[in-house]
Amino acid sequence: MTAHAQPVTVLDAIGGTRLVPLRRIVPAESARILLKLEYENPTGSMKDRMALAMVEAAEADGRLGPGGSVVEYTGGSTGVSLAFVCAAKRIPIRIVTSEAFSKEKRDHMAALGARLTLVHSPTGGTTKELTLEMIETARNLASAPGCYWTDQLNNADQLPSYERMGDEIREQADGRVSAFVHSVGTAGSLRGISTRLRFHDQAVHVVAVEPAESAVLSGDPSGSHKIEGTGAGFVVPLWSEGLADEIQTVSTREAMETARLLARQEGIFAGTSTGGNVAVALRVAERLGPDHTVVTVAVDSGTKYLSTELYGRT
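^ that's the sequence the OP posted. Answer follows.
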């Protein structure tokens, strides 16, 4: 380390994840599929990128002052990532979540020092009603003095972190990206990544993925599903018309089956939203055929779902 070099912290481990080809589950006449291994981030999720970006932006402009605290509602991974960032920065954090999401995520948040408030899900899955109740609970908690509510569905501070991820993907793929396939949660990652990919190549075809049981972007009614971190049940604020060239749906069942296939055939141990991403990427790759490249994302690690239906009952 030189005399003027900044010290390395655990937060510097965020980003720079690998992009790997799927080798066994892609048919011979399909396009190649490259998967961005976001579970290589410190908490095993791509949400580490957005958590750091949101907290540091708020610190920089004074929304989060010295001695302040953070509040957020979350399906789990964003909460874990925020708890990690806040632990590293010694910032108190309160998280609003639900038993609809995996116990592993809740335990991980608590282990990192977060105080949890649980909102009950009558269906056991993600619904519009659950999301809205979690938001209102977080809003009430954030009224305390010194609290900063990151409010992920409305927070554009996350976008630069995903734009950098888009540049990583383009560089790792040697500029050869025919299509980008990704699920919609806050829509921040799809928006940030696709913006940079299209900046370099307007021909990149962007495919948004949402749960078939709650396909509101496709114009269908909201419903209950178990693809954690996606499908809020309403059109999220960071989504806009034209963000994707097409929208495809995937059922909870197909997403889980594909995630299990990834684990057993490729050795890639990831969560349900990753299964959904890959299921749709396989369709797109088949349609495009050889000499094209489809990129998608391994959003988080399968270790977050060991007690759930995804892996715990198979």
